[in-house]
Specification:
The protein is an alpha/beta fold. It has one domain: Ribonuclease H-like superfamily/Ribonuclease H (Nucleotidyltransferase, domain 5, 2-Layer Sandwich). It is 38% helix and 16% strand. The chain has 7 helices and 5 strands; from the N terminus they run βββαααβαβααα. It has a 5-stranded mixed β-sheet, sandwiched between helices. Strand 4, helix 4 and strand 5 form a beta-alpha-beta unit. The longest helix is centred in the last third of the chain and has 20 residues. The chain starts with 12 loop residues before the first strand and ends with a helix.
């Protein structure tokens, strides 16, 4: 579990999920570019979702989505063609998060890593609060005494139905938030 700060003073959580360009072969974080940012905020560990953010992002290095990526995510070429670049969308995402303290959460370490890759590529700084990242996949596995599993597996273990389209960032962020509302109170209590 990545943890860069005192969770006792942070009551707000930003649950983020990303979709990125991908290919059947040759997919690496260095090649990938974010094509959708989805996120929800929780006012507290077990609190309700208080706001949502969802935007497509136009890739610039390899602007044409692979057939594999379209099949996996359901994101169409027209969705990203009409979107802003990461350099345009990321500041809007940070503005949506706002200045109040928060802990960034995601299912696994990938999302934070891809934020770092895309920020570096665009000459943007990774916000310091991102370093307070909580890997919910690791936390869930630790608390449940199991090997890390996918989001769908965790939902099934908690008897929470999958809603929306898997591999769409905003839908996955909503699903991860449902898991987070079970996990975060236990994390705050010392697991």
């Amino acid at each position: 579990m990545e943890d860069g700060g005192d969770r006792g003073t942070v009551m707000r959580y930003v649950i983020a999920d990303l979709e990125a360009t991908c290919w059947e072969k040759g997919t690496t974080p260095a090649r990938m570019e974010i094509i959708e940012i989805g996120a929800v905020t929780l006012s507290s560990a077990a609190g309700d979702v208080t706001s949502e953010f969802g935007e497509f992002v136009r890739p610039v290095r390899e602007p044409i989505l692979s057939e594999f990526c379209i099949r996996l995510t359901g994101i169409r070429q027209s969705d990203v063609d009409g979107a802003g670049t990461f350099a345009e969308v990321f500041p809007r995402f940070l503005e949506w998060i706002g200045p109040d303290p928060y802990t960034l959460c995601s299912w696994g370490a990938y999302d934070l890593g891809q934020f770092r890759v895309d920020c570096k590529r665009q000459g943007l700084s990774v916000p310091a609060p991102f370093e307070r990242h909580l890997n919910l996949k690791q936390a869930f596995a630790h608390l449940e005494g199991i090997k890390p599993c996918g989001m769908k597996g965790a939902l099934g273990r908690l008897n929470i139905p999958l809603e929306g389209q898997h591999h769409r960032a905003i839908d996955d962020a909503r699903s991860i938030a449902k898991i987070a509302r079970v996990v975060l109170p236990r994390v705050e209590a010392g697991g």
